Amino acid sequence: MEFKIHRRRDKSLESKQSLKKLLKNSTKLEPIEVALHPLEIRLAKYEHKYAMTSEEFHKKVYAGELEESVDFISWLGDYEQFLRLLQKAKFSAGKVSLGFE
């Protein structure tokens, strides 16, 4: 079964302008470590609940071995966000990599 993640699109001009203003006025984004921490906690809960690592889960999802569920969709989103932030942290630290480890 293929996972399909639907994202709600906010088309209001006011929201887009507010976001642009916020990003323009932002001088520093929160540290990557701060963003990683809550993801690590959520990932650990899923790993404990389903008795597999997030890496194993990720491979099973893309191999089509798991049924779609709310937990799995959330876990997949959290894990992929975790991987992106980890790559960003490595890039920021000067450890540029082309793929996820």
From the structure above, extract its key features.
4 helices, 63% helix, single chain, mainly alpha, 101 residues, globular
Could you explain the architecture of this structure?
Helices cover 63% and strands 0% of the residues. The protein has 4 helices and no strands. The longest helix is centred in the last third of the chain and has 23 residues, at 70-92. The chain is globular. Residues 5-12 have low confidence and may be disordered. It has a domain at 30-92. The chain is mostly helical and 101 residues long.
Detail the topology: elements first, then pairings.
Layout: H1 13-25, H2 32-50, H3 54-62, H4 70-92
Number of helices: 4
Q: How far apart are the first and last residues' alpha carbons, in Å?
A: 25 Å
Helix proportion of residues, in percent?
55-70%
Number of strands: 0
Low-confidence stretches: 5-12
The average pLDDT is 77
| Rg value | 16 Å
As a percent range, the share of strand residues is under 5%
